[in-house]
Design a protein that fits this description.
This protein is of the alpha/beta class. It has two domains: 4-200, 2-enoyl-CoA Hydratase, Chain A, domain 1 (Alpha-Beta Complex); 205-251. 43% of the residues lie in helices and 15% in strands. Helix 1 packs parallel to helix 3, helix 3 (88-96) runs parallel beside helix 4 and helix 5 crosses helix 6.
């Protein structure tokens, strides 16, 4: 998908090196229906090879991140179990292994699938009033699709307690559980996001994409199986135009070419 103006459930704006994606079903507290799942997958796929975009900021309209899945749709429609574009697992895997740095800006509720989205972000920033939870068991279902991502993010001990009770918890506990990386007052959340963007501005686009691939390759394979891959990756990057520019800039004590000066405001 290249025409972001035709999206039904998302707002997408690209500013400088960042794509801002807003879940936009405020009347449903930004609950994810099949259309939203498909559109999130499509937008991230369209950004996969775009090295002009180094970061994606995910947020929700009207002060709510995502209240989970669309309950009405869940009652009426069978959830796809293959590699369908409306499969939540496909969407989460696509976001998880995005070539960009993914920042979740979490305000209000992040429940069920919304919590799953937080789990596949690289950096999660939560306002002090955010609420998290996996209420599926209280609805008579199970957090099936998000389970591997939650386990990877928070570990077995905490995940089993949260999944089996369905209890909600606030942003401070989310920080303690390693679900989010930082919390802040609601009025400060945009400034906290900007601090992260200022850091990402210093990072090389191709190096970001290569490092995201490195993380998951190393995670999913034994150390011995990745030795050659890791050595080849470093040598390939080191000899490339981007790394040569970065190292030259360091020695010359100047910003690298990809570090643009902040625009006048």
């Amino acid at each position: 998908m290249s025409d972001f103006d035709n999206l039904e459930t998302l707002l997408v704006e690209i500013d400088d090196f960042t794509a801002f994606i807003t879940l936009n079903r405020p009347a449903a507290r930004n609950a994810m229906n099949f259309k939203m799942v498909e559109e999130i997958t499509s937008v991230f796929e369209s950004l996969r090879d775009n090295r002009d975009v180094r970061c994606v900021v995910l947020s929700g309209a009207d002060g709510t991140f995502c209240a989970g899945g669309d309950i009405k749709e869940m009652r009426e429609k069978t959830v796809p179990n293959g590699d369908s574009r409306i499969n939540l697992d496909v969407m989460l895997r696509t976001v998880n292994q995005s070539a960009q740095v993914v920042i979740a800006k979490v305000e209000g509720a992040a429940l069920g699938g919304g919590l799953g989205l937080v789990c596949v972000s690289d950096i999660a920033i939560a306002s002090d009033n955010a609420q998290f939870g996996m209420p599926e068991v209280r609805l008579g279902v199970s957090p099936a699709f998000i389970s591997p991502f939650v386990l990877q993010r928070m570990g077995l001990t905490r995940t089993r307690e949260l999944m089996l009770t369905g209890r909600r918890f606030g942003s401070q506990l989310a920080l303690d559980y390693s679900l989010v990386h930082m919390t802040c007052a609601p009025q400060d959340i945009d400034d906290c996001v900007q601090v992260q963007l200022n850091d990402i501005r210093l990072c090389a686009p191709r190096a970001i994409a290569a490092t995201k691939d490195l993380i998951f390759t190393v995670l999913e394979n034994s150390l011995g199986d990745t030795v050659e891959y890791r050595a080849n990756l470093l040598n390939t990057l080191r000899s490339g135009e981007e790394a040569q520019e970065g190292m030259k800039a360091f020695l010359e004590k100047r910003p690298a070419a990809w570090v643009k000066k902040e625009r006048d405001t």
